[in-house]
Amino acid sequence: MIRLQDLTLQRGPQRLLEGAELTLHPGHKVGLVGANGAGKSTLFALLRGELSADGGNCQLPPDWRIAHMRQEVDALGRLAVDYVLDGDVQLRRIQAELASAEAAQDGAALARLHTELDNADGYSADARARKLLAGLGFASEQMERPVDSFSGGWRMRLNLAQALMCPSDLLLLDEPTNHLDLDAILWLESWLKGYGGTLMLISHDRDFLDEVVGHIVHVDQRKLILYRGGYSAFERARAERLAQQQQAFEKQQAQRAHMEDFIRRFKAKASKARQAQSRIKALEKLEQLAPAHIDSPFDFVFREADKVSSPLLDLGEGRLGYGDKLVLEKVKLQLAPGARIGLLGPNGAGKSTLIKTLAGGLQPLGGRLQRGENLVVGYFAQHQLDALDAKASPLLHLQRIAPGEREQVLRDFLGGFDFRGDRCDEPVVNFSGGEKARLALALIAWGKPNLLLLDEPTNHLDLEMRLALTLALQDFQGAVVVVSHDRHLLKSTTDEFLLVADGRVVSFEGDLDDYARWLADYRVRQQPSVTAEAAGEKTDKRAQRQAAAALRQQLAPLKRKAEAFEKDLASVQEKLAAIEVQLGDAGLYDGARKEELRDLLSKQATLKARESTLEESWLEALEALESLQGDLEASA
């Protein structure tokens, strides 16, 4: 088990944990939550043995294998599938020793190493690595590309696959969903549910935590507090305590009134009963849990547009893509004020292409796209974080788009995004990904949009900021089109879904549970072609190696058989020795112990017969093993 006793952790002058206590049993799946900077990643570094405790004890079983998702990427020239296989260090060691033994034609070493390879599931390793990569969204041809050909987000997916590839007793995952789309997250959930070891993960995805973990550890006020259940259960438990405070009660009442109004508005316009019920449940859940976030530093709104057109945007018979590459065709989409649309679809199907076209970043390859006279678009995408002026502060960014506004008004507005005091004046170059995302959202919110186009807006945002964004979107009067892997955001802010798949954009009648089932069916339909492509890419050399490995694999079962006979034989001989000790007792031959003597002699006879049979079987197995070794050496 993992046991932390009176633990103190410090980074520089900042004390992160003090007198913290925690016990986790083998097989537990635990979510680690807390404010940014509270010490979650530092605790992971302690468990990996990369730093020592400043006080108290951190105890882990000494024989535990620990796997973790690295944040850096090396071996840039390695092929993606080989990079993932490198995660299994024991496998790579066996393979290296096998190569040496083959070069030396050492039959005994080959027999031993092939048994080790079989025990390590080495013969299926390549297939398992490719399965991991496919689940995380890699096409078969991408698996044969070098690591340095991928963008930063896809390299993080490779690091995640490498961590999953490593056999482990403890798996540490720090924000594993940050660079994943919804499809890959659903696959990862399924994989982690089947993981047999102890899992600890840091995540800002509440639905992901609810699906995967059975406990939450909250890092709060330098302590570690263990809660049973997923993130929703943790929120309820925390809300019960915080709701007793008058400030929490007052804020809850205001949020309840807002949510009830929103639910009424939604009910009046909803056309899909199942989607409506799902949405209402999500909003009621938010109402119930609001007190758990009373200490959130975020509180903002999207400023309302001065004028509105209807429709805001009208796309007819659209042909969308890049250059000469057609991605989507026959796209029909009309956006009216108040529309709430979530885009669903497999990775690479064209969701971002659609949003970029609506935002004006791409021109349609064909069809008709008409924009309303008063259309004001607020567009959020990850590349906009890089477009921020690294030398400018949040205040200067806002002053550039609102030159006539008083400074105090701008500072108050930025405070809702937790840019306060000196932080308003610091250059963006020092900001984290989450802080840059908050600033980008602040600039959009100030611009009075009447159409929000959001492409993965929650990347890098923590749980508190995600809740604040959800509440702000609920209060927004304009239209929203969103692509997100955050299911809670989708359920709480959208009225309908559009499915982007197979070159088309169509209405999706179900909810997110229905989409998960659709996606599973879609993957099954795609699997035959993926398998065929992967098979076609295998070289003759690889086929030859696999054929040779299959032949040598015959050694493994024979060796295991011989070892089993030898183990049974040793056990029988041990029992015989014990009986012989008992028969050496002179008192055993008294008339009163006649029955006991008869039982011992009977057991001795049975065991001797068993010993003779085992010896014969053992010798036969050894002869068969030696004969096959000779055949392999001769063929080599």
Descriptive report:
InterPro entries: AAA+_ATPase, ABC_tran_Xtn, ABC_transporter-like_ATP-bd, ABC_transporter-like_CS, ABCF, P-loop_NTPase. Belongs to the ABC transporter superfamily. ABCF family. YheS subfamily. Residues 2-246, 310-527 form the ABC transporter domain. Strand 10 and strand 11 form a beta hairpin. This protein has 22 helices and 18 strands. The chain is α/β, with parallel strands linked by helices and 636 residues long. It folds into 4 domains: 1-64 and 169-242, Rossmann fold (3-Layer(aba) Sandwich); 246-293, no CATH class; 313-510, P-loop containing nucleotide triphosphate hydrolases (Rossmann fold), CATH 3.40.50.300; 554-635, Helix Hairpins. It is 49% helix and 18% strand. Helix 10 runs antiparallel to helix 11 (273-289), helix 11 crosses helix 18 and helix 14 (394-401) packs parallel to helix 16.
List keywords for this structure.
49% helix; ABCF; ABC_transporter-like_ATP-bd; Rossmann fold; 22 helices; nucleotide-binding; alpha/beta; 6-stranded mixed beta sheet; 636 residues; ATP hydrolysis activity; repeat
